[in-house]
Design brief:
This protein is an all-alpha fold. Helices cover 82% and strands 0% of the residues. The chain has two helices and no strands. The two termini are 33 Å apart. Keywords: Cell membrane, Membrane, Protein transport, Translocation, Transmembrane, Transmembrane helix, Transport.
C-alpha cells in the first residue's frame, strides 16, 4: 500500500498534516503512534509465541 504513494504523495501528506495539526502537535502524535505500534508488535509477538508453545 505505501509503495504506491511515492515521494510527491508523501510530501503532500506531510504538508496536509502540518496544516491540520500544526508543527507543535506533530511530535506528540508521532510519539503516540510509535508507542501504539510498539505495543501492537509486542502483543502479536506474544500471540505467536503462545501458538508455538501449544504445538
Amino acid at each position: 500500500m505505501l509503495s504506491n504513494i511515492g515521494i510527491p504523495g508523501l510530501i503532500l501528506i506531510v504538508i496536509v498534516a502540518l496544516i491540520v495539526f500544526g508543527p507543535n502537535k506533530l511530535p506528540e502524535i508521532g510519539k503516540a503512534f510509535g508507542h501504539s505500534l510498539k505495543e501492537f508488535k509486542n502483543a502479536t509477538k506474544g500471540l505467536t509465541s503462545n501458538e508455538e508453545k501449544t504445538k
